[in-house]
Amino acid sequence: MDDSTKTQAVSDAVASLYNTYPFPPEPILDEAPPGYNWRWYWPTVHSFCTGAAPASNTVRVLDAGCGTGVSTEYISHLNPDAEVLGIDLSERAIATATQRCQSSGATNVQFRQLSIYDVDQIEGEFEWINCVGVIHHMPDPLKGLQALATKLAPGGFIHLFVYAAIGRAEISLMQRAIALVQGSQRGDYRDGVQVGRQIFASLPEGNRLKQRERDRWAMENHRDECFADMYVHPQEVDYTLDSLFELIDASGLEFVGFSNPQVWQLDRLLASDPALLDRAQQLPEKDQYRLVELLDPEITHFEWFLARPPYPRFSWDEDAALLSAIPTRNPCMEGWPSQSIFDHNYQIISLDKTEFEFLQACDAHNGPNSEHSQASVAELVAHGEASPEVVRQMQQRQLILLEPSQQT
Ligand SMILES: C[S@@+](CC[C@H](N)C(=O)[O-])C[C@H]1O[C@@H](n2cnc3c(N)ncnc32)[C@H](O)[C@@H]1O
Q1: Nearest residue by C-alpha to atom 8 in ligand 1
Q2: Which atom, in ligand 1's list, is nearest to the CA of 15?
Q3: Gap between the Cα atoms of 123 and 3, Å rounded
Q4: Is the dihedral angle over the CA atoms 233, 239, 243, 249 positive or is it negative?
């Protein structure tokens, strides 16, 4: 078999898995889905990557490998000014995604059954590409990422998610065990799910594979779609930090940062010994990530943003730029208005009185329903208790988004 025939055979097997078990198996709703994920909201994506709110929300978004359209539906509802396209290999996944968006009234979205390898068939470029849980299922992930890179507009961002090898060691062993038992029946995904469930049921108590499944995954794997996606996949590449950065370096795009940055903070692991933490923090950034990977074998995936340069970066270090910016409250929070809220990462946080009042002032002047004229940071600071430093920290904690003034 030549390379392209092999690639096609693997892609056919992947499409067949997801035609049997479309993923994710979330129910279809007749209204916009509840909640938010800041990685699906263009202003917070742009702000995370550049430091500033975007000049325009009228962007083209590609959800590459959209599956049954759960993320696509969120992106469409959270970004009503965007034009959204979802593509996927699997015909059944696309049919479900289409039905999902019709049912909830997402009108700014279209779907197409198309491989990521063939994105050159789509006209034009995208300011934002979401590609979560997909390229590690492609026979040549780098070729897939490079294909997506050709569709990313200059200054655009792509969000990616791939599996991590260390945290998925037990899953990988179980995948191989199921394949061995299935033998020539590999490719019959229903049989694979049945074999997998039988093996787990037979393993003795205390067995590490069984224990890990029970402690970490059993809740979601109750659904056969999730079990198959995890254990009976015909194609999966798991990454280490080193192989991840080889992929990134070869993509021609620029690494912006992990989209779960708190996971990659060494103080999460070494804070009890400040001297050791300090020593570890002297390491180059990539070695600090390597150290986290080694010390926390629970990490099961990598998620991160890449950019197609050039793109702006705002640090807000200079008071003049900060004071002339227009602040808005990040809508990715729950429980507002209250001093105790869930923040953009669904962590409960307490706002002090100054922060709370600043957010109220943001809503009053710069919110979507505001009846006042727009106010800059300088104007809001002049009428409240917040100092520029408080505002800076609120931006870093993603409580507010800052739109630079035209002169900045
Ligand atoms: C694990 S699902 C992820 C779905 C969705 N992105 C999510 O996060 O909910 C992987 C999806 O990638 C799709 N896929 C795999 N290879 C693809 C390719 N070459 N082109 C387009 N879609 C692909 C599969 O059909 C499947 O629906």
Answers
A1: 132
A2: 25
A3: 27
A4: positive
pLDDT tens by residue, 31-65: 999 999 999 999 999 999 999 999 999 999 999 99
Pocket of ligand 1 (CB under 6 A): 11, 14-15, 18, 23-24, 65-67, 70-71, 87-90, 93, 115-117, 132-134, 137-138, 229
Residue 48 CA to ligand 1 centre (angstroms): 25
CA distance 283 to 182: 46
Confidence at residue 373, expressed as pLDDT on a 0 to 100 scale: 81
Angle, to 10 degrees, between the axis of helix 189-202 and the axis of helix 224-231? 90
Measure 135 CA to ligand 1 centroid, in angstroms: 8
What pTM did the predictor assign? Answer: 0.97
Dihedral of the alpha carbons of 198, 200, 206, 211, in degrees to the nearest 10: -160
Q: To 5 degrees, how large is the angle CA 43–CA 48–CA 51?
A: 90
Please count the residues of the chain. Answer: 408
Cα 254 to middle of ligand 1, angstroms: 23
Ligand 1 atom 9, closest CA: 24
- For the segment 103-139, what is each residue's pLDDT rounded down to a tens digit? 999 999 999 999 999 999 999 999 999 999 999 999 9
The mean pLDDT of 190-215, rounded to a whole number, is: 98
Asked if 333 contacts 72 with a C-beta cutoff of 8 angstroms, the reply is no
The predicted structure's pLDDT at residue 407? 57
Look at residues 44, 89, 92 and name the one whose alpha carbon lies nearest to residue 68: 92
